[in-house]
Amino acid sequence: MSLLNTAAFDPTFFLHHAYIDFWFERMRNNLRARGINPAIYPNVPTNARHVANATTGFTGYRQVDGYSETLARRAVYEPVPTCSVTSPACGNRFLVCQLSSGRCVPPVRSTIGKRSADIESSEDTCDKPRNFDLPYQNDFCVGEWCDFDEWAIIPVKIVHVRPPKFKTYNSYPVISNTVDQRLDIYSPKAYNETRRFISNRQGNPLTYSRCNRDMSVGQIYLYSHGLNYPGFYKESTIIDQKLPVSVTIGYVGVKRPAPGEELSKALLRAHDSCGRVCHAACRDPDTNEFKACSGAVAVSEEHPLLFGNDFDEAVLSVFDYDFNKDCPKVQTDNFYITFYCDYPNKFPFAHPDPQEM
């Protein structure tokens, strides 16, 4: 990018300077609104390179030409997208609504999935296991149209094992009338079989320094990214981190497929509150076994449905109250994707070995 004649061929350089030109033109519009001619070049006698008639490095152009209306008319800029409480859609999944200013701005990690939230009031820069009762306000937008009825809800099973850095829960076994504080009773390292199946298979993925301390309660964050539609969804579920292994249920939204339209395709992802990625497994329709998959789903109106048209249907597809109203049966066959948050010692998105399929 150091050569002026070819610098604009670099996509990053081009986008960067197009953005600068956009703000330069907004400044010129502000000058016009105040009755100031934006084509008047400022007097900068202290720097010979920046005087009006100094060359720019581009043949035939002087510094003063950068202020000319002739150049300005060669580009037209779209208006800045705005939003409000009643109209939170920004028309772009890479923008969120900043309510305090009514502007659409790029999200930070803590605001993804909270497009109607005021991001200036957020002090967190990453997902943290706090405020467990604080829900995520999704905008339910597909493009510029925001409507909950446009979304379907997929039930997701989450299998979580005790994090590798969880040292002790301070609940110990008693051996011969003496408390044994070497390992707590929930630690998978305390027993031969759980150590073989859980601890010995775990890696030690990098995480935030705040996650080095033991916390018995955590969260798993679920996402869906539209692949053939402009939509995004985020939700979380609570997990018990002290147990060697536990199972919980989450629900994630995707664009509802309409009769006669193409499939709704989305990429589902999950990670814990420390940023450690969970790997996906999808149910094989031929064997009903769960096998490692990418987490990409294609949802159609064909039966069996992978989703509920709302939370009511999604919940009742998992819990069969007709079986027993006081103790509903969990219909495990209605889970089509499972996330395993087991901190493996290999890259979570790698293809599994054939013998593990």
From TrEMBL:
<dbReference type="InterPro" id="IPR008922">
    <property type="entry name" value="Di-copper_centre_dom_sf"/>
</dbReference>
<dbReference type="InterPro" id="IPR002227">
    <property type="entry name" value="Tyrosinase_Cu-bd"/>
</dbReference>
<dbReference type="GO" id="GO:0016491">
    <property type="term" value="F:oxidoreductase activity"/>
</dbReference>
<protein>
    <recommendedName>
        <fullName>Tyrosinase copper-binding domain-containing protein</fullName>
    </recommendedName>
</protein>
<feature type="domain" description="Tyrosinase copper-binding">
    <location>
        <begin position="10"/>
        <end position="21"/>
    </location>
</feature>
